[in-house]
Amino acid sequence: MSEARARLDALPTIYPRLFPKGPLTWGFEIGDGWSSLIAALCARLDTVLQEAPGASMEVRQVKEKFGGLRFYYELHGADDETAAALREAVDLAVATCAHVCERCGRHSAVEDKGGWLSTLCSACRTDPP
């Protein structure tokens, strides 16, 4: 297991407020290159929730789809300001992932290869996994 994958797998333990049911059913369905971004996102979400004691959140799924990050969650008991702050953090992570290679973390862009969208740098695009 790579260090990046171990970091992702540890997130439910580090942030039980985000993962109240423990690890995700299907795990993190993303490449290792986005692991730092997801860890930073979870840290930000946890900070926002600490400042809103009545709010709770459950991360449901984290995956790559159509070359982009999909981060699905349920939010309960949050006021509009807290909900907006959480949404803004997720939106920033989604936008950032569109410019980061999912496999290695280097600068990249979404590319369409015959209808298959991916976010891979030029080196990873030519080097199969």
What's the shape?
globular
Structural class: alpha+beta
Number of DSSP strands?
5
What is the string of SSEs from the N terminus onward? HEHEEHEEH
Show unreliable segments: none
Q: Fraction of residues in helices?
A: 25-40%
Distance between the termini: 14 Å
Quickly describe the structure:
By secondary structure, this protein is α+β, with helices and mostly antiparallel strands. The protein has helices spanning 3-14, 35-50, 80-97, 122-126, and strands at residues 28-29, 56-65, 68-76, 109-113, 116-120. The protein has one domain.
Structure in words:
It is a single chain. The chain is of the alpha+beta class. The chain has one domain (3-126). It is built from four helices and five strands; from the N terminus they run αβαββαββα. A three-stranded mixed beta sheet has the order 1-2-3. Strands 4-5 form a two-stranded antiparallel sheet. Strand 2 (56-65) and strand 3 (68-76) form a beta hairpin. The longest helix is centred in the last third of the chain and has 18 residues, at 80-97. The chain is globular, with a radius of gyration of 15 Å. 27% of the residues are buried. The mean pLDDT is 94.
